[in-house]
Specification:
It is a single chain. Strand 12 and strand 13 form a beta hairpin. The chain has 390 residues and is of the alpha+beta class. The strands form three sheets. Strands 5-14-10-6-9-8-7 form a seven-stranded mixed β-sheet. 37% of the residues lie in helices and 20% in strands. Helix 5 packs across helix 8. The protein has ten helices and 14 strands.
């Protein structure tokens, strides 16, 4: 009996033969060729039935010998099992470190989180961290300052030169942006009873709580950070063009139009409006002279698949770190292409467990840390912001 691999190779060979005959003699196909094509088609069908039988037998064997959970790749399953035991306190630090080495599916460090756990953290961050999801994110191998060279040649141009006349050279103006590595942390205390509850999904609970907390501190810095011990946010960046609201304590559609034209024309491609929740509520009431809403909903958008709306053709997304249109000096709107905001990661999120600190209350401490920086990277006017005036 042929193996699955041999059957797959046989099927591919016969399919190639059949396609070659059809392509070569499509216009002059005689009875002999038709018979050959039919035979090849029947043989392919027979191979398909054999493959189907193999898969059926394999499925029965797997179902009879392993629970559904055991179908996870062995290395990852072992890794996940050991990490779950670590979180619940049934496995020691030494055992985790030894088994991680043996599993070989991730790094050799005790703090490294298995794939399933880290994906939960990442998804939770993206649910809250809108700019984190849209920005340009990179991971660097070095831990020191990361220098990004910049060039500004907008002041220079070519020239019309007469025959025999010397050309005038002009140097390119260069500069650099330095990205650092700031440490973001969070911690959570969980009771031993909660960890010992066999029906409780401890990975999702800890991952969700730590992930959302880090997302909040990330997003706050990416929008409003002052660059001291944290990333420099778009609002605080000195290159962000400020547009004052035309009316006291109101940000209207004219202000939004001014924000568009405050940045360089070449930078409007891919640009997005980020607005506070209060500002978005006000925008839902904007209508044109015929009473039609100015916010347009994408034809293919659904509530389940994200209800994206546009204003003047640009997407409008809510960001919880922006201010209120009813508060003087607040910034409820920023506009620009998020790919011009760079986020530098030093390493993935690291999770640690401590049983000693809260031993008297029979609780366990979990901490999560990471190192990153964020900054606007461009010599052009790439972002604008609307500030509420009194």
């Amino acid at each position: 009996m042929k193996t699955k691999k041999e059957l797959m190779e046989l099927r591919a060979s016969k399919l190639t033969q059949m396609n070659t005959l059809v392509n070569e003699r499509s216009d002059n196909m005689d009875e002999e060729t038709l018979a050959t094509v039919k035979t090849l088609k029947d043989e392919i069908g027979e191979v398909d039935r054999s493959l189907s039988a193999i898969e059926t037998v394999r499925g029965i064997a797997v179902a009879g010998s392993k629970p559904v959970e055991a179908q996870i790749v062995d290395g990852k399953k072992e890794f996940r099992s050991m990490f779950t035991g670590y979180l619940r306190g049934t496995v020691t630090n030494k055992e985790v470190q030894e088994r991680i080495m043996q599993a070989g599916t991730a790094g050799a460090g005790l703090e490294t989180v298995p794939d399933e756990f880290y994906r939960t953290l990442t998804s939770k961050i993206l649910e809250y961290g809108m700019l984190y999801a849209d920005a340009k994110v990179m991971t660097t191998g070095n831990h020191g300052d990361f220098l990004i060279p910049m060039a500004d040649d907008t002041a220079n141009s070519g020239a019309w030169t007469a025959e025999g006349t010397a050309m005038t050279p002009a140097d390119i103006t260069t500069s650099q942006i330095t990205m650092k590595a700031y440490k973001a942390t969070t911690a959570i205390v969980v009771s031993t009873e909660l960890l010992e509850d066999a029906f409780f999904d401890v990975e999702s609970y800890v991952a969700g709580a730590l992930g959302v907390r880090l997302a909040r501190v990330f997003e706050s810095a990416f929008i409003n950070g002052d660059g001291t011990g944290k990333p420099t946010g778009i609002v605080a960046d000195t290159g962000t063009v400020n547009v004052n609201s035309a009316v006291t304590l109101v940000v209207d559609e004219t202000d939004m139009l001014n924000a568009i034209y405050a940045i360089d024309p070449s930078q409007r491609v891919g640009a997005v409006f980020y607005v506070s929740d209060a500002q978005r509520k006000a925008m839902d009431a904007w209508v044109d002279t015929t009473g039609r809403p100015l916010l347009q909903t994408n034809a293919s958008a659904t509530q389940a698949g994200a209800m994206e709306t546009t204003l003047y053709g640009y997407p409008v997304r809510v960001n919880y770190e922006l201010g209120s249109p009813l508060t003087v000096a607040d910034v409820p709107v920023i506009f620009g292409n998020p790919q011009n905001y760079w986020i530098r990661n030093i390493r993935n999120i690291t999770v640690k467990r401590s049983d000693e600190l809260y031993a008297l209350t029979d609780e366990v401490l979990f901490t999560a840390t990471t190192r990153l920086d964020g900054k606007v990277v461009s010599e052009n006017k790439v972002f604008s912001k609307i500030t509420v005036i009194a």
